[in-house]
């Protein structure tokens, strides 16, 4: 028995975003990530073409475009330091013109959002029927190599939908001597009729300059997007079964 699934069209397109150009700390793929090197990576989370990504600049709200869904709250609230934000799929860097691509714990994320804690991002959910949020949280590897501020930055990530807390991370640090802190997976269902998603980036109370917080692969899934993910899982399972026969 052989199945063929044809999926037409695409929702997500990083090419439509305002992406970093010539980042000062370029991401580099290696065979084994070295915690003593900034922004090297040995794992990749690629763009999901059937997702709606959280964006900052070239997206729109409340109806997302291919780049994604922009926050609806004032840009001054998005970041503690290094603002205003001016790039999609980027870290906070050291200010305008220094944004880097997103690497968390040796994993490169083609899509995502980055800021400096403390910050708050409020996304309007009324433009589509979203069913689920997925992403990964952690501190940017741009501060990990020398363990700036003693730990490569630290932060707490809080996600709420219509005032109800859906996820709160522990205090995440960029790393420790000889070890990077891996990105933490976040996923939760979005209730029917939800109006807004709030992401709070908390610095954990230290108020230092290294708290470069990132949410990698920050995306919203509709019922159609979830059905595509199910097809992908079935294909993987079928490949695994064939390997045993």
Share of residues in strands: 25-35%
Please give the domain count. 1
Order of helices and strands: EEEEEEEEEEEEEEEEEH
Low confidence ranges: 1-9, 230-245
Rg on CA atoms, Å? 18 Å
Strand count, sense and barrel status of the largest sheet are: 5 strands, antiparallel
**CATH class, please?**
Mainly Beta
Q: Which homologous superfamily in CATH is the superfamily? A: NPCBM/NEW2 domain
* Backbone shape: globular
Q: In CATH terms, what is the fold-level topology?
A: Jelly Rolls
- CATH architecture level-2 label: Sandwich
Average per-residue pLDDT, rounded, comes to 89
Structure summary, number of beta strands = 17
Describe this structure in words.
The chain starts with 27 loop residues before the first strand and ends with a helix. The relative contact order is 0.19. It has one helix spanning 223-242, and strands at residues 28-29, 40-41, 43-45, 52-53, 102-104, 107-109, 112-116, 119-124, 130-139, 154-161, 164-168, 172-173, 175-176, 179-180, 184-189, 196-202, 212-222. It has one domain: Sandwich (Jelly Rolls), CATH 2.60.120.1060. The radius of gyration is 18 Å and the shape is globular. By secondary structure, the chain is mainly β. The strands form five sheets. Strands 4, 7, 9, 15 and 17 form a five-stranded antiparallel β-sheet that branches. Residues 1-9 and 230-245 have low confidence and may be disordered.
């Amino acid at each position: 028995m052989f199945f063929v699934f044809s999926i037409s069209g695409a929702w997500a397109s990083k090419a439509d975003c305002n992406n970093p150009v010539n980042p000062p700390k370029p991401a580099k793929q290696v065979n084994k990530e070295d915690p003593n090197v900034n922004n090297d990576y040995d794992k990749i989370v690629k763009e999901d073409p059937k997702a709606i990504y959280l964006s900052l600049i070239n997206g729109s709200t409340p109806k997302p475009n291919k780049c994604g869904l922009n926050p609806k709250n004032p840009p001054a609230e998005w970041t503690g330091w290094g603002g205003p934000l001016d790039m999609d799929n980027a870290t906070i860097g050291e200010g305008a013109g220094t944004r880097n691509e997103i690497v968390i714990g040796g994993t490169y994320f083609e899509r995502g959002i980055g800021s400096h804690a403390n910050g708050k991002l409020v996304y309007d959910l009324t433009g589509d029927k979203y069913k689920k949020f997925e992403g990964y949280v952690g501190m940017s590897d741009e501060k990990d190599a020398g363990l700036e501020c003693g730990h490569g930055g630290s932060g707490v990530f809080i996600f709420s939908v219509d005032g109800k807390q859906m996820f709160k991370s522990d205090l995440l640090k960029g790393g420790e001597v000889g070890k990077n802190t891996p990105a933490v997976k976040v996923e939760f269902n979005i209730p029917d009729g939800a109006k807004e998603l709030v992401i709070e980036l908390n610095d954990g109370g230290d108020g230092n300059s290294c708290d470069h917080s990132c949410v990698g692969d920050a995306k919203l899934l509709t019922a159609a997007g979830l059905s595509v993910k199910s097809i992908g899982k079935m294909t993987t399972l079928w490949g695994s079964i064939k390997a045993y026969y």
